[in-house]
Amino acid sequence: MAVEGAPPFFAESIVFLAATVVAVPIAKRLGLGSVVGYLAAGAMIGPHGLRLLGSGEDVLHVAELGVVLLLFVIGLELDPQKLWRMKRDIFGLGTAQVLLTGITLYAVGRYAGYPYSTALVAGFGLALSSTAFALQILQERGQLSSAYGQRAFGILLLQDIAIVPLLAMVAILSAGEGPATAADIVREVVIVLAAVAAVILTGRYLVSPIFHLLAASRAREVMLSAALLVALGSAGIVHAVGLSMALGAFLAGVLLAESSFRHTLEADIEPFRSLLMGLFFVAVGMSLDVSLVGANWEIVAAGVAIVMMVKGIFLWSLSRATGSPNSDALRIAVTLPQGGEFAFVLFTAAVSNRLLDYQTANLLTAIVILSMLLTPLACLGLDRLAARVKARGVENPSIETFEEATPAVLVIGFGRFGMVVAQILTSEGLEITAIDNRPDRIAYARKQGYKVYYGDATRADVLAAAGAGKAALVAMCIENDKVMAKAIDLVREGFPDTLIFCRATDRAHVLDLTRRGVDFQIRETFESSVVFGRAALEALGTPLDRIDQIEEDVRYRDDERLAMQLADGIYAGADRLHRVTPRKAAEDKQDLPAE
């Protein structure tokens, strides 16, 4: 499909956008999630549907960058210590699931009469779940950070690693391919380790200084280019030695999780990730050969049922055996029973090496796609079952999970004022996240032991990435009144239930904040001046009870003046400034009852 005189892919882009605009809202309205909408859109416009577009393979090569960016963003949310704590789920639970599922499906393939090499490739290819699909479902439901979401992610991460030995298995099984020598194996291992080391060293020692220089330039588009360069560059380095691009991007993300630019990186990459992930699922939908499925529907239906049942049983039983409650084990089982995108890579390699014929590969691909399509239905069924159980009063406390037991606070602006606020909050054991847009302040605060991130408070995506939606309170400690006003509006619009506490610079700023309806505001100069005045009176010999009376009266008159200024303008209430505080001690003494 082409339009004369139009730029390349112009008409195709219109078709893609129109199909997704129609299909995705319908799928979400039906409770099936956006992924099913993308798959349906691809099947509708593809070569096996309305034939508005050709093969989805060319699109898939570009759209796979969405999976790369997804894993980079996920890596940003995990620091190395947290990843290390997940090692049992990754290497224990994940490895057991791949091996047991792969061996079982291999046995089914052999029972169905397929050669052992075909059954081996098919069995272990179908044992892999879809990282892109499952993580999209978890993110849409807001459950990626839950206990079962983290276990599911550990399994998916191991499966991404497993594609490497599986591709090596294809090479070994292929006809005419001699066994690899020890020297070949050692050389490959050294190359892989060197690539991983290059990503680690670059991420740890080179990227943060570069971002500090770019942040000082205040050029957002350059920061965006650098963010994409880090994600795609690390993916390219690792891919060059035969590892998964997504794995390389994930590794880079983990290394930058402790960086002060974490939230800005996440906010900058998110639009590209979302768009490319949608394109990825559309391309997968385009690959579904409906006529082939119709001609072999018994084989495909049996394959989908066997794959989802076998994977679901192993996922549930292994999760239960390793400590998950029944509700979490069920959620893992219904989130990961589908085939995955890496199965396409494995099946393509097997066809090239003549381990699979074209028709078998297409049938396996159809099984993977249909299992993806049925996964949201399984999740929806479990949700309805849980709701029914809850309605009957048989509540399982494990179904609801909470990421944090204490309130979180987002501190915006980390100068002297913000640092003292953070010190008071952390003294109570509260968790804080702080953002600032000055690299020198961030560097100083980090030397003092605070985790402060680079971020622009006038961007809604940065506020969301920094956790404004999860925060119980947002502390605005910014010096710039205009920046604070825009940030207040963004928080009020996007997160209306969040408390907003503000640092005010002067009386005019207090009046503006009051009109904006913030929950608390304070003039730093007023409070420090009151303390200063108290100290001066004490040095001049004024009794402490008299000083207390004066402070109380000054605060009362200041509140009166602010109310008058709100009604009549900034110059109202000047008479409240020039009054001597009445002495109440003698009057109070006279009012005492006689003994």
Automatic annotation (TrEMBL):
Any one GO cellular component localisation term in the record: plasma membrane
Signal peptide bounds: none
Compartments where located: Endomembrane system
Origin: domain of life: Bacteria
Record-linked InterPro entries: Cation/H_exchanger_TM, K/H_exchanger, Na+/solute_symporter_sf, NAD(P)-bd_dom_sf, RCK_N
Membrane topology term: Multi-pass membrane protein
Keywords (A to Z) from UniProt: Antiport, Ion transport, Membrane, Potassium, Potassium transport, Transmembrane, Transmembrane helix, Transport
Biological process annotations from GO: potassium ion transport; proton transmembrane transport
Domain (RCK N-terminal) ranges: 406-522
Pfam families named among the record's database cross-references: Na_H_Exchanger (PF00999), TrkA_N (PF02254)
Membrane-crossing residue ranges in chain numbering: 6-27, 34-53, 59-78, 90-108, 114-135, 155-173, 185-207, 243-261, 273-293, 299-318, 363-382
Chain segments annotated as coiled-coil in the UniProt record: none
One GO molecular-function entry: antiporter activity
Record family assignment: Belongs to the monovalent cation:proton antiporter 2 (CPA2) transporter (TC 2.A.37) family.
Name recorded for this polypeptide: CPA2 family monovalent cation:H+ antiporter-2/glutathione-regulated potassium-efflux system protein KefB
Organism (species): Roseibium marinum
